[in-house]
Amino acid sequence: MRQERSVGVPDPRGTAPRDADERLEARRRHGPSGGEERRASAPAEPSSQRVGRDQLLLEARGVGLERKDGRVVLRDVDLEVAPGEILGIVGKNGAGKSTLLRVLAGLLLPACGRVLLEGFDLSSLERREIARRIAFLPQEVPADLPFTAREVALMGRSPHLGPMGLDGPEDRRIAEESLHQTGTLELADRPFFRLSGGERQRVWIARALAQRAPLWLFDEPTAHLDLAQQRLVLDLLRRHAARGGAAVAVLHDLGQAARVCDRVLVLDAGRPIALGPPHEILTPERLESVFGLRFARGGEGSSVPVPEWDD
Length: 311
Fold this sequence. Notes:
311 residues, alpha/beta, 4-stranded antiparallel sheet, 10 helices, 14 strands
């Protein structure tokens, strides 16, 4: 059955905190560690539980998930993510892409199988410890947070703060650097709820960057972005992998998946159909079976199949 863990995704219906203490508590609540950070007085000590391979950041072994009504959402998902790698997840709407990403982030507990993070069973780790290792970008970024863009970026530092939850100069420097990397530093003092959809998306990515986590799990990171900003975000993914990090990204643009990803996982009705290098996986025949459209080989200089249009 589907089980939801406490997550670090803010409630967009929140109202502005009334004083400094309330504001601090709200920032803790909306940080990547979520409400569980307060229950984790110290990081987990899972040294005796290491069961995966040291060279992998993330593994999924036989992961499955079903809804309360018995409908299968994920079935028999196996994947590995190594340092320096970008894994793309593609498929039509409702294929289970976002659900799989939430399972990999530890926000949903699988009904069967297991997820390993740096060799440790993900279910054995506290949210605070997971947030130090995984930066998660949700599909929908909340719109009405009563914070400035700078404060939202600074929330990414919450897994690294001490018992009092007070940020220091280094935390503020990292948050500002993250805003600069996403081209949003000029928005730093503007209210988050007054930003456009694309601006909010980039600030939320800055929040993820501020976590300084080795593994990024990004759900449609280029959504709401113009072409230049899409390129900026995809370059961030590539630079992160080049520095030894790794990323798993849900992408709808097959061209982006082919250009940026080292491997691509194709999901169809919750089941993995193919996993491998984009030029081997994104074939017209396979895409036709998944999307129900006719595909043709890309034009000169492109290996990405494109949908055919009826005249």
